[in-house]
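Work Package 3 (structural annotation) set out to generate three-dimensional models for the target panel prioritized at the project kickoff. During this period the team completed the workflow that converts sequence records into discrete structure tokens, so that structures can be stored uniformly alongside our sequence database. As a representative example, we reproduce one entry of 118 residues exactly as it appears in the project archive.
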Amino acid sequence: MSRAENHLQENIHPILPLWFRNKLTEEEIDFFRSFIQNESFPYYEKALLVTGLTLSLVRYFDENKIILLFECYDSEEAEINQRALIGLLIGLYHYDQRMPFFHGITGRLNILIEDPRI
């Protein structure tokens, strides 16, 4: 394997399985949370994973993806919470008609509306 192929595989590996996943498993949710909360990973790798989650959400609706984006919005790292906020906006716009049926999401959205950072 060439150096470029190896680099590509190492850097994109976490995002591809997430991007093309319909429903997230508990293991994938735990992996995502631990990756985002791990301080040893640089912000740009975390931001890439948040982008992958957003793309996955646009591809296939899963309530857990929106909940994870809400959790990322609470991050202290500006790059992470900004990407999460944009992901939430895209996801909520894309699935607007479904939102009244998901009380956990609408509850978090009401809390987000009260956030002075927005």
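The helical segments are 3-12, 15-19, 26-37, 43-59, 63-73, 78-94, 103-113.
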